[in-house]
From TrEMBL:
Domain named Yip1: residues: 100-264
Location of region: Disordered: 31-60
Family, as annotated: Belongs to the YIP1 family.
Compartments in which it is found: Golgi apparatus membrane; Membrane
Transmembrane regions: 116-140, 160-180, 192-210, 216-235, 247-268
Protein name, as recorded: Protein YIP
Amino acid sequence: MDESYNSNLPTSHLLGSVPAVVNQEKNTPNYEAPEANMQTFPPNNGGGSRQGYQTLGSPSEVFEQQPPNNWKGVFSVSSYTQYFNVDTDIVINRLMSSLNPLTGDFFSKIDANPDLYGLVWISTTLVFVLASLGNCATYLMQKRTDSSTSWNFDVSYVNVAAFSIYGYAMVVPLAFYFLLQYLGSNASLVRFWCMWGYSLFIFILSSFLLVIPFEFLRWIIILVAGTASACFVTLNLRSYMESNDLTVVVIASFFLQLALAIFIKAWFFP
């Protein structure tokens, strides 16, 4: 009798009994967690139409909404990285354009991506080319006139070349930028630096020809190179200011470029 009574008791109420596992996966509908909604803390309790918690957008949207850098960005290296984002094909194409001064379309080619890579690279290369080839040309001229004279390398060529080339490539575009701004014409300092930087490329090529120890031929070479570089600057500057009649500014840029060519010949290849 005790055995039959114990067998009729529900086992789920007994101490230590394990309830049966019921498989409810088939009967339970799929449940999707709601999308998280991030909010800023503390809430915006100030004035305005929007109060309480503010919903944050995606990380990219938050990044794009950050205010631009102030004037302190001028002293930040990261502010200039976009002006060095050029590849070899772009630089070669712009170098070839500087050797064809009659087109006057250089600004249209660099409008989407003006660079400062050409300014730095061309100016630095021209400094070392003038210092080295200038000494070489002086040596050849002295040996041609009197082979018995001694010759020493003139280190001052490096200092003069660095001061004149870097100073011209930086100060002249800056001066034209402020001048055009004062005259009420639109100007872009980065585009001016880019154009004047590439305009110096022809002087690198002509420096190798100026080593020839014939004074008359040297003057012809430097005048042709200086005229081509001056025409490149003048025609592009005129096309940039086509809406304004600033002939005096254009003529000034021509003679400044030609004066640089004469200075290179007179000082480094006398």
